[in-house]
Design brief:
By secondary structure, this protein is α/β, with parallel strands linked by helices. The chain folds into 2 domains: about 90 residues, Leucine Dehydrogenase, chain A, domain 1 (Rossmann fold, 3-Layer(aba) Sandwich), CATH 3.40.50.10860; about 130 residues, NAD(P)-binding Rossmann-like Domain (Rossmann fold, 3-Layer(aba) Sandwich). About 40% of the residues lie in helices and about 15% in strands. It has 10 helices and 11 strands. A 6-stranded parallel beta sheet has the order 1-11-8-7-5-6, sandwiched between helices. Strands 3-2-4 form a 3-stranded parallel beta sheet, with helices on both faces. Strand 5, helix 7 and strand 6 form a beta-alpha-beta unit. Helix 1 packs parallel to helix 10.
């Protein structure tokens, strides 16, 4: 029997619908949520992603602005812009699209951002709060994965979740998020990475498998425990002469073989990607509500 498909587009649409009344309430107070995205350089994938974020904002009533800066923008100039956005009372969320050019120190940029406008959740203070189990903002992709699990009826509580990949965007923050003593988390988490010996033994034990390695179709059906829940956060461009663009986007999981063994599985694309944007919008609305509340109370 084939796995049940976890439809990220559908669940993201539900989340956006839930945000609309909150956005309307803020707009009536004169505090329409406002997200500003900064794009340095002209990486095609980043450009497309920022466009998708701006489009998603406009569809549900969030104001958005994209600031494009050339590839050779000095680090000081970007820091100055972040400072201006920090002080702009209309802006509730700031997003500096990654990856940044090599001459710009990502940590410096993250540190320069106000923690209560860091809707991507990458400021070291916000990551530290996540470690303490008291997050202000959690990174959007890990948050989206947790929502996918819970809204598809796969609460991770008490289950063994195996995370493939220890990157700072997905693997590591998700492993912390999923292990928090919360009703929607409370999982036993194992992280596997390039230094893990006998990685197949861990994969076979997983009740829930989170794939975030960026190694196309590495995980095949015979490696899996029957009934496993698979969330595939990997995205790689794979040459495909039959595709219009000459390539296709593939996940870390070989979908056709895995779906015959798994209980639930996300497609790539259409699984985690839409959820990342939905949770970014959710974080922006949270930021606007918090800033509006602080303003009312001041």
């Amino acid at each position: 029997m084939s796995a049940q498909i976890i439809d990220g587009k559908k669940i993201a649409s539900e989340i956006k619908s839930e945000l609309k009344p909150r956005i309307e309430a803020l707009t009536q107070k004169g505090a329409t949520p406002f997200l500003t995205a900064v794009l340095v350089g002209n990486d095609p994938a980043s450009e497309q992603y920022v466009r998708m974020k701006a489009k998603a904002c406009s569809r549900i009533g969030i104001k958005s602005k994209v600031i494009n800066m050339p590839e050779n923008t000095p680090e000081d100039e970007l820091l100055e812009l972040v400072g201006e956005l920090n002080n702009d009372t209309e802006v509730h969320g700031i997003l500096v699209q990654l990856p940044l050019p090599e001459h710009i120190d990502q940590l410096k940029i993250n540190l320069a951002m106000r923690t209560d406008k860091d809707v991507d959740g990458f400021h070291p203070v916000n990551l530290g709060r996540l470690m303490l189990g008291k997050p202000l903002f959690s990174p959007a992709t890990p948050l989206g994965i947790l929502e996918l699990l819970n809204r598809s009826g796969n609460n991770p509580g008490g289950k063994h979740t195996v995370v493939l990949g220890r990157g700072d965007l997905v693997g590591r923050p998700f492993s912390v998020l999923a292990s928090l003593k919360e009703i929607n988390a409370n999982s036993t988490v194992t992280i596997c990475h390039s230094g893990t010996k006998n990685i197949g033994d861990y994969i076979k034990q997983a009740d829930i498998l989170i794939c975030a390695m960026g190694r196309p179709e590495m995980i095949t059906g015979e490696m899996l425990k029957p009934g496993v829940v698979i969330i595939d956060a990997g995205t790689s461009a794979v040459d495909d002469p039959s595709a219009k663009k000459g390539y296709r986007i593939a996940g870390d999981v070989h979908f056709e073989s895995a779906k015959e063994v798994a209980g639930f599985i996300t497609p790539v694309p259409g699984g985690v990607g839409p959820m990342t944007i939905a949770m970014l919008l959710s974080n922006t609305v949270d930021a606007a509500e918090r800033l509006a509340e602080n303003h009312d109370g001041s």
